[in-house]
Every structure is written in C-alpha cells, then in structure tokens.
Amino acid sequence: MAKYLRNLSFSSLKHPEFRMYIIARFIFIMVLTMQATLISWTVFEITKDPFSIGLIGLVEFVPALIMAFYSGYVIDRNDRKKLFHYSIVANLALTILFAYVTSDHAYAHIPQSNILISMYGIVFCTGIARAFSGPSSFALVSGLVPKEEIPNSITWHSGSWQIAAVGGPAIGGLLYAATGITFTFMLIILLLIVAISILFFISPKPAPQQIEKESMLKSILEGFRFVWKTKEILGVISLDLFAVFFGGATAMLPYFSDVILKTGAQGLGLLRSAPAMGAIVLMLLINFIPLKKNQGRIMIWCVAGFGFSIILFGLSDMFWISALALFVSGFLDGVSILIRSTILQLKTPEEMRGRVSSLNSIFIMSSNELGAFESGLMSKLIGVIPSVIIGGGMTLAIAGLTWFKLPAVKKIEY
Questions:
Q1: How many CB atoms lie within 10 A of CB 365?
Q2: What does the angle CA 68 – CA 193 – CA 84 come to, to the nearest 5 degrees?
Q3: Lowest-pLDDT range, 65-79, 91-105, 298-312, 352-366?
C-alpha cells in the first residue's frame, strides 16, 4: 500500500519546483477566498441587498473578460513563471487598498457609499490581475513535471485549490468574527508576501519557440479555432460553464447565512467551505479509485447530481442540511474540475497553452463571476430561494441536453 501511494499519489511532488509552485499557489488561492468572503460580507453589511453581492461578480468579470484575450497572447510569448509572479504582486497591492478602505480610519472619515464604490473599483482591478494569474498559473504546470506525470500533477493542482478554498473562507469568516476585518486583511497581506517569496525558488519558464510570428489578432483567433475544433475541450468547458452559471449558489451565501439560517459570519465561512470540503474528499478518493474509463459519462451524471444538490440547498432552512447539500455539490463539481483540467493539459499543444488557458478562464469566470451576477439579478426579480431552485433545475436540463446532443462529451476517455 505504501508503495502504491508513493508511486501513484505523490509522484509529481518529487519535483522540487512543482512542490514550490503548489505551496505558493495554495497560499495565493487561500487568501483570495479569504478576501472574497470579507468583501461579500462587507458589501452585504453596507447594503443589505443580495443584488449588491451579485454585482461584485459582474464588476470583476468585465475587465477579466476584456483582458483575457490579450493575456493569452502575452503568456504564450513570455516567461510564464514571471507573469504568475507579477500577478500575485498586483494582488498584493490591491489587497493593501482593500485593507485601507475597510479599516476603522476609513469608516470614520469616508461615507459608506464611497467605501462601497471604492470596493467595487478595487474588485474591477482584481479582474484585470486575474486575467493573467489563472492562465499563467495553469500554463506553468506542464513546465514543472514530465508529460507522463501531468495527470497526477493535475490531481494535486486541483486538490490543493480545493483545500485552499476550504481553509480560506473558514479562516476568513472566523477571523472576521473574532478579530475584525483589519487584522484579517493584515494576515492576508503577510501570506501574499510569503507566496511571492516562495516563487523565487522556481527558475524562469520561458514560452516555447513559436513556429511563426503572428499578429496578436491572428494568434488569438488561432486559439479560438483550436478550441472550437477540439470537441472534447469545447464540450467539457461548455458543460461546466452553464452548469455553474445557473447552479452556483455561492454568491447568495451571505443572504442565506444572515437571513434564512441566521448563522452570521461564522456560518458564512463554513457554508463557503462546504463545497470545497466535498471536492477534497473527491480528490482523496480519486487516488484510490481513479477514473480509468467513461470519464465523460461520469462527468454528465455528476453535473446532474450537482443540480439536485443545489435544489436541496435552496429548499432547506436548516444549517446542517444546507451545509450537506453544498458539500455534495462540491464533491460532484470536483469531478468536472478534474476531468476538464486533465483534458486541457493533455489535448493542448505547449505553444498554445496560454491562449487556451485564457479561453478556459473566460468560461470559468463566466460561470463564477457572471453567474454570481445572474444569481443577484434573478434574486432581485423573483426572490433568492426561487432563483436558486430554478438554477438547479436549469443545471439538470443542461446535463440532459449534453447527454443527448453532445455525444463527444459522453465518449471522453483518457
């Protein structure tokens, strides 16, 4: 058993640079999720309006969408490690601004309406930074491990993200309740500095030699054409996009925690952590029961189960049932993340990883940030609970449509 675990579970971690990358990225993702918890709760405290929470997603999505096309072009022609490094530095600067506008000094001298506007402005800037951080990080992985170990590295890549996504909201919510927002932001700043320092131990990773010099527009269009022609990639990212866009309930968690479940900031942290906890359990099981065949069919069934769990969450007014529903949703969504990430790494040529990763980031941001805005808008129009239940139903419909209309997804195996 020990030999099995060593060969299967930890093979990619024997590479020192990959270990440094995983640690730095783990810290980075954890503080981003801590920060997201603080921002959403602060905005809701100021406005008491679910729509204002959803608006956070739209404000971050718009600049990220605009910059994503350019970022993919830049990543495929520059040092990927350096770009990832710079993106974390940019997030550090923005976090310092967040710490200031939410401090006691700012609350004493700045009207709350101006604080709210400032927070949305900083979120807009984080969208620009995110257009580079996600794709450069994903494109960097293949340069840190041999090709035969990419599936294992993706398990760690996704698993570490999920663990960070568990710790971030839980720590953020608990620290906010116990020590206040200023201390929590100071800790986030310190952790970002640690992540920046760790990345110095990774050597430069210049982009592969381009076959020919292309204009930026031609290069971007080439990335679009590749994704469009590769039906496995197009299918998995489209399925994940629409499932999370309609079925994601994360944006409305401050409302559920405060109004329906009445658990406050601590409950918000636990609710935000529940989906990632489910995904962690999935990642651990994958090491012992790997997905050896029928990955596409399994993915579609898990998306359908994800929709059911979101419906259950929308119907629940008991904390443990709500948390369990979110846990199950994270477990099932973890399958989509793992399959999508593996397909992207195995099917994408090295010289196109930046552009394909950027296009993938558009789908991810569309499902998360734009989905958060959709949740806020629908909550405004028909109410929070009906919007969540209808969203889960839409996810079920999308899973069924994919099963019957997109056979390429059902046939996915690797």
A1: 23
A2: 25
A3: 352-366
Q: Tokens in use for 266?
A: 């601590």
What single DSSP character describes residue 111?
-
The beta-carbon contacts of 66-69 under 8 Å, at least 24 apart in sequence, are 66/131, 67/127, 67/128, 67/131, 67/132, 68/131, 68/135, 68/358, 68/359, 68/361, 68/362, 68/365, 69/220, 69/358
* Structural tokens at position 149: 């170990």
Dist CA 228 CA 244 (whole Å): 21
The contacts of residue 58 (CB under 8 Å, 6+ apart) are 369, 370, 372, 373
Tokens of 106: 């700012």
Q: From the CB of residue 98, how many other CB atoms can be counted at a distance below 10 Å?
A: 22
Distance of alpha carbon 211 from alpha carbon 352, whole angstroms: 11
Angle (CA) 20 23 29, round 5°: 135
Q: What tokens does 172 get?
A: 């953020």
Query: Pick from 50, 402, 397, 72: which is nearest to 252 by CA?
Result: 50
Mean pLDDT of 279-293: 76
Spell out the residues 6+ positions from residue 132 whose beta carbon is closer than 8 angstroms to its own.
67, 71, 74, 75, 83, 84, 86, 87, 90
Report the distance separating Cα 374 and Cα 277, nearest Å.
Answer: 25
Q: Pick from 5, 27, 19, 139: which is nearest to 80 by CA?
A: 139
pLDDT at position 234, please?
Answer: 80
From CA 131, how far away is CA 298, in angstroms rounded? 30
Residue with tokens 């601590």: 266
Q: DSSP of 227-261, one letter per residue?
A: HHH-HHHHHHHHHHHHHHHHH--GGGHHHIIIIIS
Residue with tokens 């530095």: 89
From the list 84, 98, 253, 76, the residue with the least C-alpha distance to 185 is: 98
In whole numbers, what is the pLDDT of the chain averaged over residues?
Answer: 82
Residue 210 confidence (pLDDT): 55
Neighbours of 341 (CB within 10 A): 22
Class of domain 8-201+217-410: mainly alpha
Is the Cβ–Cβ distance between 371 and 245 less than 8 Å?
yes
Amino acid symbol at 403? W
